[in-house]
Amino acid sequence: MISIESLISFFTISIILAVSPGPSNAFLMAQTFAKGKSAGIASAAGFATAGVIHTIFAVLGLSAILKTSPQAYQAVLYLGAAYLVYLGVMAIKDSFTQTVDSDTVTVDKKSKSVFSQALLTEVLNPKVALFFIAFIPQFVDPSLDTPSMVQMAIFGLLYPIFALPIDLSYVHFGDKIAGYFRHHPSAQLWLDRISGVIFISLACSLLL
To answer: Is residue 17 part of a domain?
Structure first.
């Protein structure tokens, strides 16, 4: 199947990449700060599911299209950035329209869609797609009896499994930090606005 040495190397590098701060971590923390621990967990689950989807795309060769076609890359890039801007604008808009008393109810309703938001954000990030087709093949050993596509699928599915506990750690500590704001409803409204700014900033970062 796959050598132990390759698995250890892949695990080590995957953990380092997962721990390193990046757009996904920023999105994760923003959701946790604004909507609570359950929203953070839903975001982490969305990212993990997106990793599975990107693995399927990479194995099928769809991600390679983004690498060879500038037009396809730009289309997905703009679509992903536009979606992040939409999330940011809606978060800021909701913070001005909701009242302090209805804040908990609003957060509960929002949390139901966090999973799909995280999933779409990650799937529509072409840089993540390129990461999968550039990073994972480095651990594929053509000399093994296991077909290269199968090895890619195994490594691709292992990455979200390795990264999920790290993401949940971010959620745990982010929830601890945000605990103060949950006891001060008016501060929670500002957290929503800050989260909106973070989403828009992530869109700009994606484009630049």
So the answer is: no
